[in-house]
Amino acid sequence: MKSMNLSPIRVGLLGIGTVGSGTFNVLQRNQEEIRRRAGRGIEITMVADLDVVRAKAAVGAGVQVVDDARKVIANPDIDIVVELIGGYGIARQLVLEAIEAGKHVVTANKALLAVHGTEIFAAAHRKGVMVAFEAAVAGGIPIIKALREGLTANSIQWIAGIINGTTNFILSEMRDKGLDFDVALKEAQRLGYAEADPTFDIEGVDAGHKVTLMSAIAFGIPVQFDKAYVEGITQLAAQDIRYAEQLGYRIKLLGITKRAANGIELRVHPSLVPAKRLIANVEGAMNAVVVHGDAVGTTLYYGKGAGSEPTASAVIADLVDIARLHMADPEHRVPHLAFQPDAMSDLPVVPMSEVVTSYYLRLKVADETGVLARVTGILASLGISIDAMLQREADDVGGEGATQTDLIILTHNCVEAKMNEALAQMQALPTVLAPITRIRKEELA
Questions:
Q1: CA within 20 to 30 Å of 165's CA: 130, 172, 181, 282, which one?
Q2: Chain-centre distance of CA 132, in angstroms?
Q3: Cα(145)–Cα(105) distance, rounded to whole angstroms?
Q4: Measured between alpha carbons, how far is 97 from 116 in angstroms, rounded to an integer?
């Protein structure tokens, strides 16, 4: 076989933390199989990390270790640069410099691509190099490849994903143990699922970056994270998770992107999902993505969304792709965002106020006659119909002679702007005693 005589492709790693060391170890362990699949060897020959001592311990002899990423980029023997530094800052500069130097790039950096992807992909297109990013979304699940290649015959209708393991772990703990958010977060930090500063995860930003990338690939639109609606899980209460359960739903933080009449929806927020859906039963730090295509119907992708070797699995798959296509004419490679660069769409991202969905509402109200009539009257006046209703004694003041009650309402579909108006009118009622909780509901049928 002629291809087996090709010299190995040489890789430089920028950063050898959790994912970097996983990549090095899996590549070493499976090198024979990987060579049989790629048609040539793939070798990490150079590593840049500020902690040179730790890096040398991780890779052993035979790999050059430097403390300056630019030395890797400047090395003419390196074919592919793997960027595992993260963040928007220096990573953007290094990726652009690697492209300029004519090197292919593999990255796990969803934040960088969701914000600066348009610039980075354009630079790569100009230089005829590849930027591969399977590891940037859902760790070890090959969702980018599925969207970009496996489902390429389909007109994608919608995607909904649990794409942040930290928040899914917290929600699972809240549901299993009846914990409030703060307690569940501390537990997640203690077990290493949440960072010391968990803001990106719990506020939905990380999921926002990932769904932005999936949306661009699914619909052929530019990456535009700034247009995404992003809401995290910090306001969720244990009682809402319990009430949802009683109504036959689970609460999950979903990244959703959808083809709508007026453009593309792009949003991240907690959602009630029917308990019978497979995705509603994804627990702990696992990830899952549901994709609905017109020809294929609904497909589900499930697995580990983070961790050293699951993420390394995606990084190495990208390295193999590049090794196979390295010599191919750039025009015949799979486009970065699935659609040919000159055939991207300018469909707008729909503002949240124009999104149509259904809702779960929890109102703490005075337990007196006429309250329910006033609340339902406001919804009716705005054309919002009710799907189901629960009335429960409010947790904190239960018992005999309780003067407050929790009113739970599930609505049918309506436009968000209408719901905002209804909430403002209901909140103004003197008999509504606390801020109203609103959680969107997604049937995912």
A1: 130
A2: 17
A3: 16
A4: 14
Residue 39 falls in which region: left (phi positive, over 0), alpha (psi -120 to 50) or beta: left
Report the candidate in 215, 206, 231, 233 with the shortest Cα–Cα distance to residue 159: 215
Query: What is the spatial order of strands in the sheet that 9-14 belongs to?
Result: 64-66, 42-48, 9-14, 80-83, 104-107, 131-132
- Return the residue matching tokens 């995404």: 228
DSSP string across 91-104? HHHHHHHHHHTT-E
Structure tokens at 412: 């049918």
The overall pTM is greater than 0.85? yes
User: Which residue type does 244 have?
Assistant: A
Give the domains, in start order, of the chain with CATH numbers.
Answer: 2-142+309-343 (3.40.50.720), 144-304 (3.30.360.10), 353-441 (3.30.70.260)
- Residue 84 CB coordination number (10 Å): 25
**What CA–CA distance (Å, rounded) separates 123 from 117?**
10
Nearest-angstrom CA–CA distance, 71 and 240: 53
Residue 253 contacts residue 268 (beta carbons within 8 Å)? yes
Reduced to 3 states (helix: H, G, I; strand: E, B; else coil), residue 141 is coil
Quickly tell me which residue has 């790629």 as its tokens.
Answer: 38
Give the count of beta carbons closer than 10 Å to the beta carbon of residue 8: 15
End-to-end Cα spacing for the chain = 49
Rg of the chain, C-alpha, whole Å: 25
Residues with catalytic roles = 210
CA atoms of 90 and 93, how far apart (whole Å)? 5
Per-residue pLDDT tens, the chain, 445 aa: give them. Answer: 455 568 999 999 999 989 999 999 999 999 999 999 999 999 999 999 999 999 999 998 899 999 999 999 999 999 999 999 988 889 999 999 999 999 999 999 999 999 999 999 999 999 999 999 999 999 999 999 999 999 999 999 999 999 999 999 999 999 999 999 999 999 999 998 888 899 999 999 999 999 999 999 999 999 999 999 999 999 999 999 999 999 999 999 999 999 999 999 999 999 999 999 999 999 999 999 999 999 999 999 999 998 899 999 999 999 999 998 877 777 777 777 767 787 778 899 999 999 999 999 999 999 888 999 999 999 999 999 999 999 987 655 455 556 899 999 999 999 999 999 999 999 999 999 999 999 999 999 8
Q: Are 355 and 415 a contacting pair, CB within 8 Å? A: yes
CA nearest neighbour of 124 among 84, 81, 87: 81
